[in-house]
Design goal:
There is one protein chain. With 181 residues, the chain is mostly helical. The protein is built from 6 helices and no strands. α1 packs antiparallel against α2. The chain is elongated, with a radius of gyration of 31 Å.
């Protein structure tokens, strides 16, 4: 295989690949519509542009390099061990993300929510023994007892609406908590 492609070979290869792309784009246009067909035409021009800009050598080196790596990797035990470790790394990372989001295996006070709560209360270290109670009017906050008038700035407790959706009520409470009406 030659080290480099001549200018004419690069342009010819780019033009041939562009023609194949145009044929595929034609069928896409007829089957799925003009938007898909035009997108196919745009991608079909890419190899021709690479040939005209004399970048076909770079593309050829890249493709041959990737193929060489894949063929070498297929027959080496070291490569398979590396691939297994890469998969293990990704699995561990994803599992740790699920654990963090659910508070499993996380020390009290280490979560960002605990630190934000501690800053809001004016303390440097978050309380590990007892979580902070939300203020009145917030989700889970203290509500006035039956027959009591709510204090100024508090919202009265709303009873369940007939046939209301609990999830929607939770979302509304969360929005009210952040001052969004």
């Amino acid at each position: 295989m030659p080290e480099t492609l001549s200018e004419n070979v690069g342009v010819g290869l780019g033009a041939a690949l562009a023609v194949v792309g145009f044929v595929i784009s034609y069928f896409l246009w007829r089957r799925k519509g003009a938007a898909y067909g035009l997108r196919g035409v745009a991608w079909s021009l890419l190899p021709l542009v690479a040939g005209l800009l004399m970048l076909m050598d770079v593309v050829m080196e890249f493709v041959l390099g990737v193929l060489g790596i894949l063929l070498t990797m297929a027959f080496k035990l070291q490569s398979w061990v590396g691939l297994a470790l890469a998969v293990l790394m990704v699995v561990l990372y994803v599992v740790s993300g699920f654990m963090k989001s659910r508070g499993i295996g996380v020390k009290p006070g280490a979560r960002p929510q605990d630190k934000a709560r501690a800053r809001a209360q004016g303390t440097d270290a978050p309380a590990a023994a007892e979580p902070a109670r939300p203020a009145a009017g917030q989700v889970g906050g203290a509500q006035p007892k039956q027959g009591e008038q709510p204090k100024q700035g508090e919202q009265p407790k709303q009873g369940k609406k007939g046939g209301g959706d609990e999830d929607l009520e939770d979302i509304e409470a969360l929005l009210r908590k952040h001052g969004i009406e």
